[in-house]
Fold this protein.
Amino acid sequence: MDDFRLLKKLCAKSELGETIGVPVPISGGLLHKMYAVKTDNGKYAIKKLNPQIMKRPDAMNNYINSEKISYLVSKKVPAAPASIINGDFIQKIDNHFFMVFDWVEGKNLKPALNNCSHSEKIGSLLAEIHKTDFSELHIKEDLENNEQFIDWQYYVKKGQKINAEWVVLLFEIVDKLYEWTSLANQANRLLSANLVISHRDLDPKNVLWNKDNPVLIDWESAGYVNPMSDLMETALYWSEDETGNTDRKRFFAFINGYRKRYGETQVDWPTVLENGFLGKLGWLECNLKRSLWMEGSEEERKLGTTQVIGTIKEMRKYAEKITKLVDWLNNQE
């Protein structure tokens, strides 16, 4: 396998040691490939960055900034930044790009095993990230790319031409997509005056637990975000039960853990929740492009198709629960 040759070459060039055995593919998220690699110097998690994404003009700078964020905040919270090798976070081998991480012993928590204690702990860590001063990194706020202006009918027509698996689902909610886009853009304009730097994807798959000790991994989405939007999105991640519903006790355990560290805040919860559509809309379009083979490989096309179907279902469910969540939050105040 070509990746194995590249990994061996990377280990030699980066002085990680002589590889032992065959690198083992592990979960690398939904965009990249990840391998467990043993050498005579130790064990590493090595991420091969998606070649299609790395062609984007802003990709390299975004990944470098995200690792700078991870490295700085690791002094305050248990984070796992990429190793700095020869002065760089990102290594280039034969026109492919890699990030090397020291191996972290731990496991992701499944929804059935996640409890209020876990949720409260992550809520507190999120508050610590939000309170961190990142000014020395001089990362510019890029607000122009936050709003979504997507021609959803275009994707419906493209899907109809190839009889895509998701085309009926997309057609059923196409009017709602325009409505959610308008609400999200309006909410984003209201909330963009108050921004912090955060992880921005701190769901259970990006936290490894060794007993009750968490390590926050996969910082590639790190950047500016409204703190209350980040709080809400992350609280929902950590309060989802095995059936996909929101567990009220875990939801408030997370929020209370955050508030104990961050302090009380005045929040317009409906606006915050409407802003929650923004990332989902962008993720849906990203996967529509993958599914339609507008970018990526055959493997990515299949993954994109799966994600389109899952994201549509998730967005419908999210829209249905907004009223309930606002009621919960306002009655707790």
